[in-house]
């Protein structure tokens, strides 16, 4: 390696400052509703389909948290997904109630002095 390559590598290491997309709150990412500060309501008994006491019959709905983050990050794991599938989140925001927590996703900010950005990219490690 020549001196320029070593210097570039060191600069890159010093500027490696990717940061989390999600903000830290006391609500787990899988349980977040339409903001990082609101929790999803509990599932209704029997999936809201049947009245009476809670039943564990095979045809009854299983209580889950109905968020995209929970589906991708927790429920998908039971299907033995390919590597990286549990970090493929919805990335386009639209106004309204589409907040999606993204655990393990970071804003790209790892740059060198020759390419400082700005960037608007979400990345995984």
Describe this structure in words.
The chain is mostly loops. 14% of the residues lie in helices and 6% in strands. It is built from two helices and three strands; from the N terminus they run αβαββ. It has a three-stranded antiparallel β-sheet with strand order 1-2-3, with no helix packed on it. The longest helix is centred in the N-terminal third of the chain and has 12 residues. The radius of gyration is 21 Å and the shape is elongated. The N terminus is likely disordered.
Offer a few descriptive terms.
single chain, 125 residues, little secondary structure, elongated
SSE layout and pairings?
Layout: H1 3-14, E1 19-20, H2 68-73, E2 105-107, E3 122-124
Antiparallel strand pairs: 1-2, 2-3
Summarize the structure.
This protein has 125 residues and is low in regular secondary structure. It contains two helices and three strands; from the N terminus they run αβαββ.
Element-by-element helix/strand order: HEHEE
Residue share in β-strands: 5-15%
- Please compute the radius of gyration using only Cα atoms: 21 Å
The description of the largest β-sheet is: 3 strands, antiparallel
Q: Give unreliable regions as ranges.
A: 1-8
Number of strands: 3
Compute the number of helices.
Answer: 2
Q: Structural class from helices and strands?
A: little secondary structure
Mean pLDDT: 80
How are the strands ordered across the major sheet?
A: 1-2-3
**Fraction of residues in helices?**
10-25%
Our measurement of the CA-to-CA distance between the termini, rounded to an integer number of angstroms, reads 26 Å
Net shape: elongated
């Amino acid at each position: 390696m020549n001196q320029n390559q070593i210097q570039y590598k060191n600069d890159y290491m010093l500027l490696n400052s990717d940061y989390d997309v999600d903000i830290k709150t006391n609500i787990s990412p899988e349980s977040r509703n339409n903001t990082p500060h609101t929790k999803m309501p509990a599932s209704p008994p029997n999936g809201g389909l049947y009245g009476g006491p809670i039943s564990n019959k095979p045809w009854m709905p299983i209580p889950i948290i109905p968020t995209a983050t929970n589906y991708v990050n927790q429920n998908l794991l039971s299907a033995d997904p390919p590597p990286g599938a549990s970090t493929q989140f919805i990335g386009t925001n639209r106004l309204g109630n589409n907040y999606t927590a993204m655990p393990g996703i970071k804003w790209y900010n790892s740059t060198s002095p020759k390419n400082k950005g700005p960037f608007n990219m979400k990345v995984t490690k």
